[in-house]
Specification:
Elements: E1 2-11, H1 15-26, E2 32-35, H2 42-51, E3 56-61, H3 73-81, H4 87-100, E4 107-110, H5 118-131, E5 135-136, H6 145-154, E6 162-164, H7 174-182, E7 187-193, H8 200-203, H9 211-221, H10 223-232, E8 234-236
Parallel strand pairs: 1-2, 1-7, 1-8, 2-3, 3-4, 4-5, 6-7
Helix pairs in contact: 1-9, 4-5, 7-9, 7-10
Length: 242
């Protein structure tokens, strides 16, 4: 069977991103999202999560690209080498903030896929086991996959069979998404996306993903992807809670 979890990053980044994520869930195929504890629109995202209990909400752990963190992954690697950043403590505080807000996270991923770095993955896996969050995103990097799976297995964690969306971030439309769905393999695939509405708030937020978020939103809510799912026997899925 082909099962598809459609997961949006950046819940809590801006209110217009939050609104787009909820729209993609209510009127489209989006089944999950990950929440940025340090995002400027965190409180708004928490309210929306409570209003939409059928939306799986996980943790979008941030170690780069936000105030108080290194700006880039290369700077993060330098900070780790010099032991200037408490990876475990920083990420634990984000999970605790999400839990304290009354959100029960069902899954974990990281901003800019920083858990591809072995020390970050080790800290993420420890935290996921500690808090009983069973699902961790497995980005599509073939060389790292065996190590990634060994770490998750050691901590009793799970990931989807497949991952998609990395190469088309900010680029896909309805036809492109329908084509991706038509080529899905057997098993469960997580499709990463970044929907949102593009207002002045998002334009001032310092992200390259602006108008593309509305294009992704249209694709997620449009008829082409639904038709492709029906034609190819693809069923929507969720992480299913903790």
């Amino acid at each position: 069977m082909k099962r598809l979890i459609v997961n949006a990053d950046d819940f809590g980044f801006t209110k217009d991103v939050n609104a787009g994520i909820v729209e993609a869930h209510r009127n489209g195929i989006l089944t999950a999202t990950t929440l940025m504890a340090d995002g400027p629109a965190f409180d708004d995202a928490v309210l929306l999560a409570r209003e939409n209990p059928s939306l799986d909400v996980g943790c979008h752990l941030v170690l780069v690209g936000m105030p108080g963190y290194p700006s880039t992954v290369s700077q993060l690697m330098q900070a780790m080498a010099l032991r200037r950043l408490d990876l475990y403590g920083r990420m634990k505080s984000q999970i605790l903030k999400i839990l304290d807000a009354g959100v029960e996270p069902s899954h974990i991923d990281t901003h800019k896929h920083t858990h591809l770095l072995p020390p970050v993955l080790d800290a993420v896996a420890r935290l996921a086991e500690e808090f009983g969050i069973l699902w961790v995103r497995q980005p599509l990097v073939r060389l790292l996959r065996p190590h990634f799976r060994r770490v998750l297995s050691r901590h009793g964690l799970r990931s989807t069979d497949h991952f998609a969306g990395f190469r088309v971030t900010g680029k896909f439309d309805g036809a492109g998404l329908a084509a991706i769905v038509s080529a899905l393999p057997e098993g469960t695939t997580e499709f990463m996306c970044h929907p949102g509405f593009c207002t002045a708030e998002l334009r001032q937020a310092g992200t390259r993903l602006t108008e593309s978020r509305e294009r992704e939103l249209r694709a997620l809510t449009g008829p082409l992807v639904r038709e492709s799912m029906e034609r190819n026997g693809v069923a929507l899925a969720r992480y299913g809670g903790r």
